[in-house]
Design goal:
The protein has 314 residues and is α/β, with parallel strands linked by helices. It folds into 2 domains: 16-94, Ribosomal Protein L15, Chain: K, domain 2, CATH 3.100.10.20; 101-283, Up-down Bundle (Four Helix Bundle (Hemerythrin (Met), subunit A)), CATH 1.20.120. It is 43% helix and 12% strand. The protein has 9 helices and 8 strands. It has helices spanning 67-76, 101-112, 114-129, 139-160, 180-202, 219-226, 233-246, 253-268, 270-283; strands spanning 20-25, 28-33, 36-40, 46-48, 54-59, 63-65, 79-83, 90-94. The strands form 2 sheets. A 4-stranded mixed sheet has the order 1-5-7-8. A hairpin with a 6-residue loop joins strand 7 and strand 8. The radius of gyration is 21 Å and the shape is globular. The relative contact order is 0.15.
C-alpha cells in the first residue's frame, strides 16, 4: 500500500453525533485482520465491525481482544468497555482520547465550589424534569426529591404497561435472580451509560467527578445519563418487559432490549445531544472556563469544517 498523496488529508474520526450507538460482543476473539476490525468465533467465522462508525464497544464475558485491535479502536476514537453479563457490571474502560486539562480543571473547580455545584445540580434537575428545582434546597435535599420522583415514574410506567412492579432491585453478582422488568432496566441503562461515558471522555471531562452522584468511578456519567434516562431507555425497558410477559423475546431478553434502545437512541438523536448537554449543565455553575494551553490537544470528535462534499468523512 502506498502513502496517501500529500494533498489528501488523513481521515478524521467521525463525530459522536454521526455514529451508531454501540455494539455488544460476546464469546469471540476481537482482532485486526487485513486492516479491518473483526470478531472471530470458535468456528473461525469473521464478523467485520466498522469500528470508526460506533461510539462504544461493550465486551462481555468470553471475549478476548488483541493489542492491534485496541490500537485501531484508539485511532478511531471508539471507547472499549469491559462489562459483566448483559453489561450490568463495568470492570474497565479504554479511553478514546481527547482529555483536556482545561476541561478537567474547570469540572473540578465546579465540583469543589459548593455554590457552583448546587447551580449545576439545579440545572440537571430542570433538564431532567422540565421545571426549575425548588428554591432553598441543598444538593442532598434535591437528591431526595429526585429519588421520590424516580420511584413514582417507575410505578406509573409499570401501570401503563400492565406490569407487576415492586421496586428497583437486582443482584449485580447474580443476573438471573432479577425479575424481568428489573433485568430489562439493567440491560437498557447499561447501554445508556456506555454512550454517556463515551461522550464524557470525548468531550475531555472526567467520569469520576460528579455533582449529584459522587464517590463512584462513573459519577459524572450517571449525572449525564440521568438527564435522558426517562425519555429513552426506561420507557423502552418497560415496553420490552410488557412484550416479554406475552411471549419470549428472541434471541434473548437482553438482546431485544438492546435493539430497542438502539432504535430509541436513533429516533431521539441522542448522540447529537449528549456533548452539548454536558457543556450546558457545567456552564450553569457560572465559573469562568480556563483558557486552554497553546499546546493542548483539541477535544475528540470536534466538528470541524468538512474537507470534501457530504460523502467524505473528513
Amino acid at each position: 500500500m502506498t502513502d496517501s498523496p500529500a494533498w489528501m488529508a488523513p481521515p478524521k474520526p467521525i463525530p459522536v453525533k454521526d455514529r451508531s450507538s454501540l455494539v455488544f460482543i460476546e464469546k469471540g476473539r476481537v482482532d485486526m485482520l487485513d486492516g479491518a476490525f473483526v470478531v472471530l468465533d470458535d468456528a473461525g467465522v469473521r464478523t467485520h465491525i466498522p469500528i470508526g462508525g460506533f461510539v462504544c464497544l461493550m465486551l462481555e464475558p468470553g471475549t478476548r481482544i488483541s493489542h492491534a485491535a485496541i490500537a485501531l479502536a484508539s485511532k478511531a476514537g471508539t471507547l472499549i468497555v469491559w462489562v459483566g453479563e448483559a453489561g450490568v457490571r463495568l470492570y474497565a474502560a479504554g479511553q478514546p482520547g481527547g482529555a483536556r486539562a482545561d476541561h478537567l480543571l474547570w469540572q473540578a473547580r465546579l465540583a469543589l465550589d459548593e455554590t457552583a455545584r448546587l447551580k449545576v445540580v439545579r440545572k440537571m434537575f430542570e433538564i431532567r424534569f422540565g421545571e426549575p428545582a425548588p428554591e432553598r434546597r441543598s444538593v442532598d435535599q434535591l437528591r431526595g426529591l429526585e429519588g421520590t420522583r424516580v420511584r413514582r415514574i417507575y410505578e406509573v410506567l409499570a401501570a401503563q404497561h400492565g406490569i407487576a412492579w415492586q421496586k428497583r432491585n437486582y443482584d449485580r453478582n447474580d443476573w438471573s435472580a432479577g425479575d424481568v422488568p428489573n433485568r430489562c432496566l439493567s440491560a437498557a441503562t447499561s447501554c445508556l451509560y456506555g454512550l454517556a461515558e463515551a461522550a464524557v471522555l470525548a468531550a475531555g471531562y472526567a467520569p469520576a467527578i460528579g455533582f449529584l452522584h459522587t464517590g463512584k468511578p462513573l459519577s459524572f456519567v450517571y449525572d449525564i445519563a440521568d438527564l435522558f434516562k426517562f425519555e429513552t431507555v426506561v420507557p423502552a425497558a418497560f415496553r420490552m418487559a410488557a412484550q416479554a410477559a406475552k411471549h419470549p423475546l428472541a434471541p434473548s431478553l437482553e438482546s431485544a432490549v438492546r435493539r430497542e434502545c438502539r432504535d430509541v437512541f436513533r429516533r431521539s438523536r441522542l448522540l447529537e445531544r449528549l456533548v452539548p448537554a454536558i457543556d450546558d449543565v457545567l456552564a450553569a455553575g457560572e465559573l469562568q472556563r480556563p483558557d486552554p494551553p497553546e499546546d493542548s490537544q483539541p477535544p475528540a470528535f470536534d466538528d470541524a469544517a468538512p474537507s470534501g462534499d457530504a460523502g467524505h468523512r473528513g
